Write a sequence for this structure.
């Protein structure tokens, strides 16, 4: 187990006086069980229940009375009921017994001092079965693949980790962090992959892990498909999403298939509920509120860039490249920057956003939008001269602020640019590996502009 940033979030939850039961969400094998076990070490007692196991599921099948249920569980696991306030109760694979979701409500109402975490790989599909979900009685956190920051920690690169969090980054740390990020871009952030590489430093050995992960997702299909035809469709979708990740997609014929638009959309929405993918619809306005246009083609964000690299067959290209923007027409690094922006966002509604203007005369697109202090900050992911940022200029002419971000293969610096229509704005240029530190750099960027003016 390597240190995950979400542990800090879980510790804050554990210390809250008005704590509710926590539902930890995320795709299979992103490390939910491992991270909760790590949190459990901070408590006097830790109870782990896996509802895939008949022995652990049986108390929930037999009892709905909370006091009796807890007595049974504590007896089953040989724990002291008198220490329940110092006990972390973890109910894993809770979707295997949907009525257990309702028990969370009564645990909150009758035993508010008992810390309870629930998790499940296909939890969202359980919500679709007309279950009385305890609205307002639970809170949520989402666990995603490991970030570059966590990758450094797992690999024992503690000095590099310290410098990554220093704002602004010292110039002398640039080359080292760029080299390490190159490796992270290749491996991705799936915990098993990161841990294996940290211990063995063998990139070739990771192939079997990627294959195993993708096979396990495909094998999960039967758990959330209703018919054999749907099984085949979802299996096709799983195989295709990692090859199409980072691109705007059409549902009709997705993945070079003959499947209809409606069927593909339903399958992808189902995968979205299991956190394997995210369908990102474009924003057409340049100001808040965020109102993505679901009539336009979405961009497909997959769970992990390492899996994208494996399925797209671009791992050798990454190893040989000087600038990650040259790989896969820039799609891989753009996808990874999005993954990094999301990495430390743990709320259920956390999402990525991008902007388009589609006209018959000309189109424009900005890679990402980042809400910051009431403003939508545009983010471009590309190398090259700043004079080629045509879409960014169009966007900046539409907004009331003067701040923009570019991630590229270069050093930190602030450019002062002028749009063709005459508006002056500031562009913060950041190396790709600082995407996970975006919020901190936004604060620093704003201060620099204030000093300059």
């Amino acid at each position: 187990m390597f240190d995950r940033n979400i542990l800090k979030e879980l510790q804050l939850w554990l210390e809250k006086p008005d704590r509710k039961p926590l539902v930890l969400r995320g795709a299979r094998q992103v490390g939910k069980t491992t991270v909760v076990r790590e949190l459990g070490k901070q408590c006097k007692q830790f109870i782990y229940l896996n509802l895939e196991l008949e022995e652990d599921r049986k108390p929930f099948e037999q009892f709905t009375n909370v006091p009796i249920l807890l007595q049974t569980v504590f007896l089953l696991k040989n724990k002291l009921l008198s220490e329940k306030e110092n006990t972390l109760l973890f109910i894993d694979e809770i979707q295997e017994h949907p009525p257990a979701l309702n028990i969370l409500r009564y645990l909150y109402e009758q035993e508010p001092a008992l810390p309870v975490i629930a998790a499940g790989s296909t939890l969202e599909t359980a919500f679709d079965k007309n279950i009385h979900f305890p609205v307002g009685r639970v809170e949520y956190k989402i666990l995603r693949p490991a970030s570059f920051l966590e990758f450094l920690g797992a690999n024992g690169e503690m000095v590099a980790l310290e410098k990554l969090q220093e704002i602004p980054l010292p110039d002398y740390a640039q080359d080292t962090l760029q080299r390490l990020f190159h490796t992270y871009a290749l491996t991705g952030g799936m915990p098993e992959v990161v841990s294996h590489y940290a211990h063995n430093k063998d990139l070739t050995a990771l192939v079997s892990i990627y294959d195993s992960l993708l096979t396990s997702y495909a094998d999960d299909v039967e758990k959330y498909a209703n018919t054999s035809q749907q099984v085949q469709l979802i299996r096709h979708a799983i195989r295709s999403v990692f090859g199409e990740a980072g691109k705007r997609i059409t549902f009709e014929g997705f993945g070079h298939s003959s499947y209809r638009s409606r069927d593909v959309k339903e399958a992808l929405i189902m995968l979205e509920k299991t956190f394997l993918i995210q369908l990102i619809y474009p924003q057409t306005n340049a100001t808040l509120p965020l109102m993505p246009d679901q009539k336009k083609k979405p961009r497909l964000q997959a769970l992990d860039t390492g899996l994208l690299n494996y399925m797209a067959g671009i791992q050798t290209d990454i190893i040989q490249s000087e600038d990650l923007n040259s790989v896969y027409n820039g799609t891989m690094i753009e996808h990874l920057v999005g993954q990094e922006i999301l990495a430390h966002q743990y709320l259920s509604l956390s999402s990525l956003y991008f902007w388009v203007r589609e006209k018959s005369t000309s189109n424009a697109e900005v890679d990402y939008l980042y809400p910051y202090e009431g403003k939508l900050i545009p983010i471009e992911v590309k190398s090259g001269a700043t004079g080629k940022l045509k879409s960014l200029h169009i966007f900046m002419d539409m907004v009331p602020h003067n701040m923009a971000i570019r991630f590229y293969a270069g050093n930190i610096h602030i450019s002062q640019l002028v749009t063709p229509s005459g508006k002056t704005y500031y562009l913060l240029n950041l190396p790709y590996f600082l995407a996970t530190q975006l919020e901190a750099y936004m604060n620093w960027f704003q201060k620099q502009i204030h000093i300059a003016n």
The longest helix spans residues 228-244. Residues 355-452 form one domain.
